Known about the structure:
By secondary structure, the protein is an all-alpha fold.
Amino acid sequence: xxxxxxxxxxxxxxxxxxxxxxxxxxxxxxxxxxxxxxxxxxxxxxxxxxxxxxxxxxxxxxxxxxxxxxxxxxxxxxxxxxxxxxxxxxxxxxxxxxxxxxxxxxxxxxxxxxxxxxxxxxxxxxxxxxxxxxxxxxxxxxxxxxxxxxxxxxxxxxxxxxxxxxxxxxxxxx
Length: 174
């Protein structure tokens, strides 16, 4: 997409944080809208996530407890959005496999690999953004990432379930 789109996503996330009403759901919707065209290339996803997290940074306050809460809500919104994107991708893969002439086993394996990489991409992007943030922001994001890696993410659970389902339905091996 365009630089302008990333700026709009960043501004929308910043404005959501400033309003403070429903950060989780608003961030989730921003990410879903940005990824709804089905463009699942890793760099596109990273750009969207970076823009949203950076927008949240811009809108957060200097108060440590409030900043942590904002970042937690932002990350939770992104997690839920990626879970929705994973579900939609799974449905699109399943529909595409119905047309065997155009969708090969190689295509299915590639689509599953992209789907399985979604959670890693989420963690990698958060870690990259944390490196560029202020000390409070960096330590908060790193703590959130560490917690999510230990406890699981919504997108991770969704990807595991949908990948398992698709592999069973189509008897594809890794």
